[in-house]
Amino acid sequence: MSVCCCQIQLRKRTTPISWLSWVLWCSVMLSPAWGYVIVNSVSWSVTNEVEEELDSSSNEEALPALLEDTTSIWKQSYPASVYKEDEEMRSRPVAGRSKQISSPSRMFSYRRESVKGTDSITPQEQAIRTARFLTHYNSWGFLATESTQEKIQGVPFGNCLLVSDGPINNSTGIPFFYVTSKDNTVTDLMKNSVASLTLPEAEGDFCRKNIIDPEDPRCARLTLTGQMVMVPPEEIEFAKQAMFSRHPVMRKWPRNYEWFFMKMNIEHIWLQNWYGGVSTIAVEEYFKAVPSKE
């Protein structure tokens, strides 16, 4: 009987000891994770100074300043103290070191394609060139009209249409369209010819490759407003070249839809291509410019 009692007492003492050992083991395994900040699936140990800097700079007002880097072809956001630490590490002599320590991945970064001869271009000139670039290289756009449909009469109505401002080697800056009167958008235009055309950079590869959301100000978008008119007879041949060279499938569209060409007489131009608001571009300057990404 005494032997059984001793065994029961030993079991009771062993249980809390095992539980305590398990807790201590878990704490030892998890302790290295303390003091790390996770950014874009990349972790590194930081000091309290860096952590406070990250917290203080993570707001909408500070974001544009963080992202701007005028000294290199990369725009990036990263705590300044980390750069200082990185420079100190690079300057320290280490025996047998054959490679420099590379900087951690940036929170926000994308490469800017440099173009020869653009160093002296002003921001406004760059905006104008970007506007012409978007008009020329976008194959479709979002056209907004005032609806004439019975249930939504007078309400803005949007539609995606194929567009071209000329053959690939001949940019005019004037959007041309190949449309049919059976389309509700064209019906709207016959009553009110004023329309807005939005051309997003999201259509190209730049925003997608750099993982930039289409609504992000860095992913440019151009809005043209003006009068939509039928292309006059003397411009029909050019309109055919403009549309059919960029959209060959149009040649095979059913003839019974009575397709015809329209264009926009541009009156106002707005461009969003960076933080800080929308740029207003003069129509005269727009037509003088050469399409360019930069």
Mean pLDDT: 74
Main β-sheet, in a few words?
A: 7 strands, antiparallel
Rg, please? 31 Å
Number of β-strand runs: 11
User: Helix count, per DSSP?
Assistant: 9
Percent helix among the residues? 25-40%
Order of helices and strands: HEEHHEHEHEEEHEHEHEEH
Structural class: alpha+beta
Which runs of at least 5 residues are low in confidence (pLDDT < 50)?
2-6, 36-46, 60-83, 94-117
User: Ends: how far apart?
Assistant: 92 Å
Fraction in beta strands? 15-25%
Shape: elongated
List the helices and strands and how they pair.
Layout: H1 2-30, E1 36-39, E2 42-45, H2 48-57, H3 63-67, E3 74-77, H4 80-91, E4 108-111, H5 123-137, E5 140-146, E6 156-162, E7 176-179, H6 184-191, E8 194-200, H7 206-209, E9 221-230, H8 236-246, E10 260-272, E11 279-280, H9 283-288
Antiparallel strand pairs: 1-2, 3-4, 5-6, 5-8, 7-10, 8-9, 9-10, 10-11
Write up this protein.
The longest helix has 29 residues, at 2-30. 34% of the residues lie in helices and 22% in strands. The protein is built from nine helices and eleven strands. With 294 residues, it is α+β, with helices and mostly antiparallel strands. The strands form three sheets. Strands 5, 6, 7, 8, 9, 10 and 11 form a seven-stranded antiparallel β-sheet that branches. Strands 1-2 form a two-stranded antiparallel sheet. The chain has a two-stranded antiparallel sheet with strand order 3-4. The termini are far apart.
